[in-house]
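Priority: medium. Attachment 1 of 2:
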């Protein structure tokens, strides 16, 4: 199906450019035809003049001036139509290409969401069936229960991302503004991840009693998505750093990982809706392309800015700057 779509798109692009070049060629031909007729009419008028006519020179100037005027008229009209055609062609091409790209991203999102839903459900079902059918020692039971809770949390995060994303996009979410302790909120999120992913090395530095005005649920989703992103792209047993501190007139929240990092080109795209780094055909990491989009959207709704830079130790550093 993908091959047929690519062929169909290639044919559509070919036909589009063919007709555009045809219209431009017709416009250029129209100009030369009119200019040729203008020169012929000028020649006929000059041939009809008599050299012994006292007003010969004045009539010659008038005929030449009329020819130049028509030439300027044709050039002006042709230039206007050419500019109009080119602006319209560029606008249509960009709009259609954007529509195709968004359609492809939505299709990839549906494929990813299907996989993201089926995988944790299958793992949870398998773990529960194992616990039901087999008598396992306490350590193995705890391990299976931990895995089941992790997959359940993935489902919860996924559901929250989809619901909140659609509500924010449609303007249907009522953003609450309340004074909250961002230190306690961040600590709850990061220590929950530390318990769920003990194989990673966690470096946590949270300054106490930092307060901002915002929505507790949205801020929790934002922090969880940043941590989920760090886990997703980091090797197992690598270090993940979480920092929250006040500097001058800002409260800075940072999540650093030791993953592959993000190129300069992709840094401009990673906060777009449905965008995921890498090639869709060879991508191995999980995700739907909503996590970082939501992070930026939530940060903007809280009058904060989000930035991504290189981690000096390798990987990425996501930082959010709140006004203190």
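Attachment 2 of 2:
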């Amino acid at each position: 199906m993908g091959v047929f779509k690519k062929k169909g798109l290639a044919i559509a692009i070919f036909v589009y450019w063919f007709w555009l070049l045809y219209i431009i060629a017709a416009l250029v031909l129209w100009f030369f035809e009119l200019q040729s007729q203008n020169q012929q009419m000028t020649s006929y008028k000059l041939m009809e003049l008599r050299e012994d006519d006292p007003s010969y020179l004045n009539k010659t100037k008038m005929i030449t001036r009329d020819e130049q005027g028509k030439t300027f008229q044709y050039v002006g009209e042709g230039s206007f139509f050419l500019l109009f055609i080119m602006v319209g062609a560029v606008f249509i091409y960009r709009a259609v290409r954007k529509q195709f790209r968004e359609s492809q991203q939505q299709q990839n999102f549906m494929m990813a969401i299907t996989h993201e839903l089926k995988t944790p459900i299958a793992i949870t079902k398998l773990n529960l069936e194992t616990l039901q059918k087999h008598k396992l020692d306490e350590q193995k039971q705890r391990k299976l229960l931990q895995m089941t809770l992790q997959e359940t949390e993935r489902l919860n995060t996924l559901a929250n991302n989809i619901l909140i994303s659609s509500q924010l996009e449609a303007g249907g979410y009522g953003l609450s503004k309340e004074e909250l302790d961002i230190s306690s909120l961040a600590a709850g999120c990061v220590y929950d991840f530390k318990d769920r992913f003990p194989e990673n090395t966690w470096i946590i530095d949270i300054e106490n009693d930092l307060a901002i005005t915002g929505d507790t649920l949205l801020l929790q989703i934002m922090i969880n998505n940043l941590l989920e992103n760090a886990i997703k792209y980091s090797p197992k047993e690598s270090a993940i750093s979480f920092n929250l501190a006040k500097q001058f007139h800002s409260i800075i929240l940072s999540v650093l990982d030791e993953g592959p990092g993000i190129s300069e080109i992709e840094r401009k795209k990673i906060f777009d809706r449905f965008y995921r780094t890498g090639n869709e055909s060879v991508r191995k990491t999980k995700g739907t392309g909503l996590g970082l989009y939501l992070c930026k959207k939530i940060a903007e709704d809280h009058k904060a800015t989000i930035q991504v830079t290189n981690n000096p130790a390798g990987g990425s550093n996501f930082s959010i700057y709140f006004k203190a």
